[in-house]
Amino acid sequence: MAVEDSMNVSVFASFETRRAPMAAEIKSGTVLDRIVEARRAAIAHRKKSVPETVLRFGVKQALPVRDFGAALGRDSLNVIAELKKASPSRGLIRADFDPVTLAKSLEIAGAAAISVLTEEEFFQGDLKYMRDARAAISLPVLRKDFIVDPWQVWEARATNADSFLLIVATLDDARLAELLALGRELGMEPLVEVHTREELTRALAVGARILGVNNRNLRTLEVRVETSHELIEAIPTNALPSVNPGCTRMKTLLVFVRRGLMRSS
What is the pTM of this model? Predict the structure, then answer.
C-alpha cells in the first residue's frame, strides 16, 4: 500500500533524457484531463530529441530489474513509500526536497518499495529524482507518472525503473494491454491503478497482477477511503492489492486489516 508519511513524503546509471519545460496552462477538461493533455505534449516534444531507438539502447545498458512484486508479497504490511515534491491538490509539499536522503530514510524505516513522482509540470517531479533515489538504496523503485505511450515505458527502464504506474482512467483497453505487455517484456511488472468497479474489471481483463485502489478521484481530487472497502474485496487472491491514498493513520490501516480488506501481501 502507498501512504504519505510524517516527512511529507507521500507514502541512469548512465542514461538520462533531456526535457524541455512545457507550459502547464491548459484550460480544458478535468484536472486529470489537463495533466494527460500536458503529458502528451511533453512526450511529443521529447521524442524529437530522444527517439525510441536511443531508449532501446539505454535499456540494454540499464541495471538489472529489482522484483517489485516480490517486495510487495512479503508476509507483512508492505508500504510503498512515495517521494513527491508537489501535487495539484497540495501545492508544494517539501521545498527542501532531497530524494536521496528521503529514500535512504524510508528504506531504514522499513518501506517495501519506493515510488517516485517523475511528472514535471504538475508534481515538480523529475526522472533524475528516481535515478538518484534508486542508486542510493536496494529497494525496488516505481516510476509514478502518467504513462500513456510505449516510449515512456522504454524511458522508465532506460533510467533503471523497476516498475511503473498505469492509471486505467487514462487508457483505453488496447493501450492498457499494450503497455502492460511491454513492461513485462522489459522485466517490469506495473502497478495498475483503479478507482471504480468498472476500471477494476478492465484491469483484471487484461491480466493485471498488481492492483492499486486509488481513493482519490483524479478528476475532482476528492478522497474517499470507502472506495477501498468497495473494491478490494473484488480483487482475486492471485493478485496483489494496494491502497492509496487516505490511509495516513495507523488506525485506518488496522481497520482494513481487521476487515480483511488488506491481505498480508
Answer: 0.83
